[in-house]
Amino acid sequence: MLTRRRFLTLVSAAGLSALLHACRSEDSIESTAVVPASLPPTTDVGEEAGTPEPGGSPTTGAETATAPATPPAGAVSIEQFMRMSQVLTAFADLNDTTNGGIYLMALSAQPELGPALADLWEQGGFAAGQPTSVADLEAAGVYDDDTLAELADTITRYWYTGIYDTGPDTVEVATFTQALAWRTLGYRQTGPSTCTGAFGSWATDPAAS
């Protein structure tokens, strides 16, 4: 079962190397990621806000955000996927449907995990609005099924790293600054190279914030 605590323990040992490698430059990451034709463009909501267009005026988050593509027939809706993601990540305020749409499309394209999305919704009890935590999903038997357990862990991994699978051995970066790993650290809300508070806020003890 992949909880936030277990996630950070794993990535501190090995798993976050790909994400931290991306720290060389936010611009270099987000500009070099190539999104497959079957997936929607990767744009973090609001990340490009205020950046002047050549010969034009500054853009806004609403102008740069890209709506997620419609999931394939038979898959869960973006609203259902976001609800499952909120429980799995333990972030009840998770509402980034742009990256959520990317992750949903990537999962729907996988022969084994795609069809299991609807099963996770049903077996997890989401239709009845029951689960509020990973513990609830565990009690419902989600982690007793190998496929559902892998799906739950994969959804969590996508959100925390901002990296999703595009093939058996290939991955792409959906976002660097909005990866949930940063919010979990306690002292910043987005990735390095971004401003996350007033001048000098980095010097404040997270526990006292």
Architecture overview:
With 209 residues, the protein is mostly helical. The chain has one domain. Helices cover 42% and strands 4% of the residues. The protein has ten helices and two strands, in the order αααααααααββα. The protein has a two-stranded antiparallel sheet. Helix 5 crosses helix 6. The chain is globular. The two termini are 30 Å apart.
Query: How helix-rich are the residues, as a percent range?
Result: 40-55%
Return Rg in Å: 17 Å
Strand order of the largest sheet: 1-2
Structural class: mainly alpha
Number of strands: 2
Helices and strands, in order, run as HHHHHHHHHEEH
In angstroms, what separates the terminal alpha carbons? 30 Å
Mean pLDDT: 73
Summarize the structure.
With 209 residues, the chain is mostly helical. Helices cover 42% and strands 4% of the residues. It is built from 10 helices and 2 strands.
Question: How is the topology of this model organized?
Answer:
Blueprint: H1 4-15, H2 17-21, H3 26-32, H4 61-64, H5 78-89, H6 97-108, H7 116-123, H8 134-139, H9 146-161, E1 163-167, E2 170-173, H10 180-185
Antiparallel strand pairs: 1-2
From the structure above, extract its key features:
209 residues; mainly alpha; two-stranded antiparallel ribbon; 10 helices; 2 strands
